Automatic annotation (TrEMBL):
Native source organism of the sequence: Marinobacter persicus
Protein name in UniProt: CRP-like cAMP-binding protein
Keyword terms: DNA-binding, Transcription, Transcription regulation
Domain HTH crp-type residue range list: 172-245
One term of GO molecular function: DNA-binding transcription factor activity
Domain Cyclic nucleotide-binding: 37-158
Lineage: Bacteria, Pseudomonadati, Pseudomonadota, Gammaproteobacteria, Pseudomonadales
Entries under InterPro entries matching the protein: cNMP-bd_dom (IPR000595), cNMP-bd_dom_sf (IPR018490), Env_Response_Regulators (IPR050397), HTH_CRP (IPR012318), RmlC-like_jellyroll (IPR014710), WH-like_DNA-bd_sf (IPR036388), WH_DNA-bd_sf (IPR036390)
Length: 252
């Protein structure tokens, strides 16, 4: 089975291929079962949902869906990493988020009317995702209303996270936006401030800059300043934050 995405020639991506494969716990089904969207669903019902889904393999920079395309599926990431982005009125893409293994995305489309994807989704490297039919999930919630509570809890947590991200983006000082972003990458965020920690940027530096609404040169300059101050050590995409508490203090 093959799918092609019709996009403007400037954004044309390779063909997306759906691979016929039975998903096992080793392939990511175990992680899917523990995700908040599926945690309370009985195993046989998860299996039925997976049976109606498709296992997709994407290559580097392959497009999964495009902005404003009718949405018939949401997705669970098994491996790799994807980027969500929108195009502004001038045609420049703005990074919204990066999606890692164990994450669901586009799940808000389950309740959207009309259901259209709000952004583009592309693979940043070779990735595998499960394409879950929205109709099948809605039918499951309709048949077993007790499952809807887990979905609502997940949406509530997502809303809290989005408000926090919006708070970061409203900070006018570019350096403070970078600091708050780096602190959030620590395993416990601001909770881990008594000892140093290593983090990995989930996106290339130019896309992190886009995510933080700044030019790549600005992001690189701020990292260089933090490095010169002894607050971070930088090794390509990996950063070691030597004193998180001090970093938080100068970012307030």
């Amino acid at each position: 089975m093959a799918m092609t995405q019709a996009v403007a020639s400037k954004y044309t991506k390779p063909v997306l291929v759906a691979v016929n494969k039975t998903l096992s716990d080793d392939d990511g089904l175990g992680a899917m079962r523990s995700h908040p969207m599926f945690r309370t669903i009985r195993p046989e019902h998860v299996d039925h949902l997976v049976h109606q889904s498709r296992f997709l393999r994407l290559g580097h920079h392959q497009l999964l869906y495009r902005q404003d395309m009718p949405a018939h599926h949401f997705f669970f990431v098994i491996s790799g990493r994807l980027r969500l982005y929108r195009l502004d009125s001038s045609g420049v893409d703005r990074t919204l988020d990066s999606i890692a293994p164990g994450d669901c995305f586009a799940e808000v489309m389950i309740y959207a009317e009309p259901a259209r994807y709000a952004c583009y989704a592309e693979a940043l490297k070779s990735s595998e995702v499960l394409m879950i039919p929205i109709r099948a999930y809605r039918e499951l919630l309709g048949r077993y209303p007790e499952y809807a509570q887990a979905a609502l809890n997940h949406y509530a947590q997502r809303a809290v996270t989005r408000f926090h991200e919006l708070e970061i983006m409203t900070v006018q000082n570019a350096r403070d936006r970078v600091i708050r972003y780096l602190i959030d990458l620590l395993p416990d965020g601001e909770g881990q401030c008594d000892q140093g920690g290593e983090v990995e940027l989930p996106l290339p530096k130019c896309l992190v800059a886009s995510r933080l609404a700044m030019q790549p040169e600005t992001f690189s300059r701020i990292l260089a300043d933090l490095k010169a101050s002894g607050l971070v050590r930088v090794n390509r995409s990996r950063l070691f934050i030597s004193d998180p508490r001090r970093l938080i203090e100068i970012g307030q």
